[in-house]
Structure formats: structure tokens, C-alpha cells
Amino acid sequence: SAILPYSQALEKLAPHIQQVSMESNGKGVSIDGLPLPFETGEIDFGEPGTNGQHSFYQLIHQGRVIPCDFIGVVKSQQPVYLKGEVVNNHDELMSNFFAQPDALAYGKTPEQLKKENVSEHLIPHKTFTGNRPSLSILLPTLDAYRIGQLLAIYEHRVAVQGFIWG
Fold first, then answer.
1. What start and end residues bound the annotated signal peptide (predicted)?
2. How many C-beta neighbours within 10 Å does residue 105 have?
3. Whose CA is closest to 152, among 139, 165, 133, 164?
4. 60 close to 2: Cβ distance less than 8 angstroms
5. CATH for 87
6. What is the domain count for the chain?
7. Which residue of 2, 7, 18, 61 pairs with 68 in a disulfide if CB–CB is 3.0 to 4.6 A?
């Protein structure tokens, strides 16, 4: 699954969960040492916010179906207000946080693109079906308690998967 935190402070979350999940559940044998008749584990990866948008969101929207976890924080740890800017950087980041799951859910049809005056030759490249799985987690603030909750969600998921897979 893709772990996509929209906070630079969570840049180490995806690699941490990747290690916890893939090491714990990446085995081909049961707890008793017997070969399992099915594949276990999942491939976890991710990048913070717009870094991921520029590197692998094309695949998520138009290629392989990959469950995505979007993680946003209501209150910015370091709000930046630039003189003359109508929208601050955190609000712009959160706009992306809300838009990406919607795009994955609803997609974009050729008809919608035509209404947006997209060039005919680009329409096949910009069309995507939607109906892609995602989870949005919105934290009020980013503090030790909330980070603990976030880690617990992923650790519990790994444990339950491990119990199910044996």
C-alpha cells in the first residue's frame, strides 16, 4: 500500500512502516515453520505529499491498483504566510490532501476532459477510471500522542495480517 502523509514531519513514516510490515509479514512459512499455500505480506512505500504526486501518482491513478493511505494534519506545525499570497502553503497542501482521494474514487472521464478544453490527443493520457481504494486519516495536530495513535494503527494492521496468514 502507499503511505502518503501530507506533512513533511512524517517523512520517515512510510520507510518505518515498510520495515515493520515487510519484515514481519514477508515470510513464506507459518509460525510452525510450514510452507504457506499463498503469498503473504504487502509492498509498502510512500513519500510525503506533493513529493509523491510528482513521482508515482500517475501509476496510482492510471496503472496498478494500489490501496492508498492519505494522512493529513489540520493544524500546521510551521505555518508560512507569504506577503501577497491568497492561500498559505498549508492550505494549498491540504487542498491536495482532499483532492487526491476524490480523484481516486471518481476518476476523470473523456467527457469531463473535453469540457475542460483538453486537447483531443491528450484525452487518453489524462482519463482514469476511479474506483480505487483509499483511506484518509485527518489528525487535528501532530504531537507525540497522535503519532503514537498513527503508529498503533499500522502496528495493529501488521499484527492482524500476521495472525490471519499464520
1. none
2. 12
3. 139
4. yes
5. 3.40.50.10490
6. 1
7. 2
